[in-house]
Amino acid sequence: MKAGLLLFIILQFLSFSVNAQNMGPERRFEAGIVAGFNLSQVNGDLLYGFNKIGLNVGGRVDAVLTERWRLSLEMLFTQQGASRNKLDNPASAFDKIRLNFVEAPVMIHFQDWKIQASAGLSYGRLINYEVISSTGEDATEQTPLRNDLFSVVLGGTFFFDEHVGLNILWSKWINNLRISNPDEPIPLPNQESGKFIGQNITIRGIYMF
């Protein structure tokens, strides 16, 4: 049900994007699609490295402010989280953290030649998640998470031509996604921070219509 609703939202957004792009030059709108992947980690789980790979796909609408400045809104499906590797701290209580979001970044862009520098903020809504403990058991119910996520986003794009670009972003959560247990001391006995603050490196292709 949630997957169907997500698909409907993204399709509606893409439909609006194409319609906005076709409204004429006086509207100063451009539309596009983005597709790629996230390399993710979560600070606070004692798992290190950007080892969790997930999707980053959706649509984008640009408002052309001037020749060099643009403001964009995206509607994305993103997968984030963390994954253990053999060099991680054995004291961590987690093996994998899988997070699925609908995400809406608002970005300001400055473009010179074929290079576009970007910065902005993103709001994410947690659709569902799964937490696997270090013993391989499902610990989702024992790890309550907030539904709302806010992130800061920085990055850049190299456009090969007026339509196709390669986009690389870095993002970090602003708020703690984990809901603390009042009966559990922080820091926790195994030296976790009691907080989940994630980071992502995103590599995507962009096609602007």
CATH domain class? Mainly Beta
- The tally of beta strands, per DSSP, is 8
Major pleated sheet: 8 strands, antiparallel, barrel
Spatial gap, N to C terminus:
31 Å
How many helices in DSSP terms?
1
What class would the helix/strand composition place it in?
mainly beta
Mean pLDDT: 87
How much strand content do the residues show? over 45%
| Widest sheet, order of strands | 1-2-3-4-5-6-7-8
Task: Tell me the series of helices and strands, N- to C-terminal.
Answer: HEEEEEEEE
The number of domains is 1
Helix content: under 10%
Topology-level CATH name = Porin
From the coordinates shown, what is the CATH architecture? Beta Barrel
Unreliable runs: none
Radius of gyration: 19 Å
Large-scale geometry: elongated
